[in-house]
Design a protein that fits this description.
It is flat and about 100 Å long. The longest helix is centred in the N-terminal third of the chain and has 40 residues. The chain has two domains: 94 residues, no CATH class; 201 residues, no CATH class. It has 390 residues and is mostly beta strands. Keywords: Membrane, Transmembrane, Transmembrane helix. This is Adhesin domain-containing protein.
Length: 390
């Protein structure tokens, strides 16, 4: 009987052959996976290009689908109040890259108040809804949620037309990404009534108002303002605030987190109205990291024979954490001045400005006989203040 057969060990050539086969198999698998990922990449890129195309040139030319204009009649009502609100639908997946502007302007007298909405999108299925709440006098611009595979782009232009004879008691604008542009002539109102408020807020949109300050400063006093209190409130998170604005009433307030301020302000003050109602104008600005650049012009007085009286009844404060502050106040300003900074520098000067002390991190001074105070406060931002002439 033959014994059990001995196990034959593979030869060195056979072992090498198996190893080569394993290496080839691994390389083949890697090549297969690379081709698979490449094909998937081409598919996703094509889908993005067709649904949320961002292949823009340096000039921002997008392949946009233009929707038909929507025109909505609105009623201002007897109380002459109007709100314009940008709202987002419930967000499920994805996001939308939105830019655009809300423009508020006057139209010819006798024409109806309307809102025109022009929308362009990189995805033809994404549109914007426009609604008007009759009870609340509220225009709603409702933007859509995004897609799960793309980030489409929307361009929105909403134009609100208010008849020239209308007098708004309250204008409230609140947007997310959209900038706000309030055009010339809207803020002038000739009917003597109670307080009028302009309240404009945005997250990332720029706020812009350009009133013809030079022309208004030279106009007849009856054209400048009525006997009422005008309150201005403007606020953003990251959007800039850029205004040429008449400062007529008891308060003008500007706030932002990181947006810059470029403010050119003309005080038009009715001495009779302010004194009889115990009011004095207040100007306040506050930002965290944005730059503040303010030019306060010589005031125009109504209700007094002299238009050269001192601006001695202004209570003002300007604060910033890390942003720089640049102030240019007119030579007619009189009052107390208080400046403080933790680590920033300050340069404060002006003809007739006398300092009680002017140290490295703080300063206090007085000009004329005004009793109210100009306060400037920064943490690390620098201060550059000029009152009147050098």
């Amino acid at each position: 009987m033959e014994g059990p057969q001995s196990v034959r060990k593979p030869s060195i050539w056979q072992c090498g052959k198996r190893k080569r086969w394993c290496i080839v198999a691994v390389i083949g698998l890697i090549v297969f996976l690379a081709l698979l990922f490449a094909l998937l990449g081409v598919f996703v890129f094509t889908r993005l290009a067709t649904s949320g195309q961002h292949g823009a040139s340096a000039q921002g030319n997008w392949n946009l689908h233009h929707f038909p204009r929507k025109t909505l009649p609105i009623s201002l009502g007897s109380d002459s109040r109007l709100s314009i609100i940008q709202k987002a639908r419930d967000k499920t997946v994805g996001s939308v890259d939105i830019d655009g502007v809300v423009t508020v302007q006057t139209s010819a007298s006798g024409t109806p108040a309307t809102v025109d909405l022009d929308v362009s999108s990189t995805d033809k299925d994404l549109n914007v809804d426009l609604e008007f709440d009759e009870t609340r006098r509220e225009v709603k611009i409702i933007t859509p949620p995004g897609l799960d595979f793309a980030k489409p782009r929307l361009r929105i232009r909403a134009t609100v037309r208010v008849p020239g004879e209308s007098c708004l008691e309250l204008l409230n604008i609140n947007t997310i990404q959209l900038s706000v542009d309030i055009q010339e002539g809207l803020l002038t109102c000739a009917t003597p009534k109670a307080t009028t408020t302009l309240d404009v807020r945005s997250i990332s949109g720029e706020l812009k108002i350009k009133e013809p300050l030079d022309r208004l400063a030279k106009a007849d006093s009856t054209e400048k303002t009525s006997l009422r209190d005008y309150i201005v409130k403007m606020e953003t998170t990251s959007g800039d605030i850029n205004v040429d604005l008449i400062m007529i009433g008891s308060k003008a307030q500007f706030n932002s987190t990181s947006g810059n301020f470029v403010l050119r302000l003309l005080p038009v003050l009715n001495s009779t109205y302010l004194e009889s109602n115990g009011l004095h104008p207040a100007l306040k600005t506050g930002t965290t990291s944005g730059r503040t650049d303010i030019a306060l012009l010589d005031p125009v007085w109504i209700g007094t024979k002299s238009n050269t009286r001192a601006l001695s009844n202004l209570d003002s404060s300007h604060s910033s954490t890390s942003g720089n502050i640049k102030l240019r106040y007119p030579s007619s300003w009189e009052g107390k001045l208080s400046s403080s900074s933790t680590s920033g520098s300050h340069t404060i000067r002006g003809k007739g400005l006398n300092f009680n002390h002017n140290h490295e991190k703080s300063a206090e001074g007085q000009k004329g006989h005004g009793s109210l105070t100009l306060r400037i406060e920064t943490l690390s931002g620098n201060q550059d203040v000029l009152v009147g002439d050098e």
